[in-house]
Amino acid sequence: MTTTTPHTEPAPATPKQDSDDTRRLSVPRSVALSTVSRLQSGYRRDDAAAVAAVARLRREAGRDLYTSPSSWGLEYLEELARLREQRRQEDHDGSDPSRYLSHKIKHQQEQREEREERAVHLAVTLWALHQQSIRDHPMHVPDWSLGRAVRRLADGKTGVQDEPARPPANSQAADRGVDANSPIRTRFVRIGTSVDFDMLSRRLREMVLLLRNARIPLDYGLLAEQLYHWQDETSQGGVRRSWGRDFHRLYQTSPANDEEETASASTARTPDAALDDAGE
After folding, report:
1. Is 167:183 a contact under the CB 8 Å cutoff?
2. Residue pLDDT tens, the chain, 280 long
3. What is the DSSP secondary-structure string of 156-179?
4. pTM for the full model?
5. Which of 108, 163, 228, 269 has a beta carbon 3.0–4.6 Å from 119's, enabling a disulfide?
6. Residue 210 contacts residue 274 (beta carbons within 8 Å)
7. Domain boundaries, the chain
């Protein structure tokens, strides 16, 4: 007597979940955050190695990556290469897919990596310029987007905390938005109308000098990601919309005490003096 086993269909393979991929940060954002967070902590403690690394990064601001031999060996480039390899291992189970790629796909991959490198290079060197000689406050702070930071600058404020609330002199002044002829707004518009990455880099550098003078921070991880997407013509519009939307968004800031405001005011300089530092 023989027994038969009922035929059953094999269970369908469980598809690989994308949840980790959708949650993980982009390569430019991850590298910028890792580099800036580590160096910022050391720089504010006056750690000699961090101070030297920040000075080296600051000297690279405005220079093309790899074109200047002095940029060879910058530590964030090592981090970028390490993270790319880690992502490749995770996405392809340790195999090397490059030998199966067509010439066209390889070219697209090289272009993507170049965009990543330019975005991280600009973001990290701008932070080094922003943090220069500032030990009491971090100039990389999460959630301080470019639009938010520039709006605070355009409103004539410094730091990240507001003065204690005072009744406005008149209701019309309290409700008035940014002056359309404001020099800060004009500079911000020029950033948005940049036609190539070199122009964008120069105009961002000018704005960062003004933000440094006012002790207003930026989120450099977010900026690196936006700079990466800006280089893709199909994504530029989204980046510009994000900058403009953040410029007009309302933000809650905690009031500062008088001592903090006095200290902030004593360290601020005129915008012209800040722009004079562009030649440093």
Report:
1. no
2. 545 545 444 444 333 444 444 358 999 999 999 999 999 999 999 999 999 999 999 998 888 777 777 777 787 888 888 888 888 877 766 555 565 667 777 778 888 889 999 999 999 999 999 999 999 999 999 999 999 999 999 999 999 887 665 555 554 444 456 776 789 999 999 999 999 999 999 999 999 999 999 999 999 999 999 999 999 999 999 999 999 999 999 887 665 544 333 334 334 444 444 554 444 4
3. T--SS-BPPP---S-HHHHH----
4. 0.76
5. 228
6. yes
7. 25-162+177-279
Cβ(143)–Cβ(246) under 8 Å? Answer: no
What Å distances lie between residue 95 and 28, 92, 192, CA to CA? 23, 6, 41
Query: 87-91: long-range contacts at Cβ-Cβ below 8 A with a sequence spacing of 24 or more?
Result: 87/27, 91/21
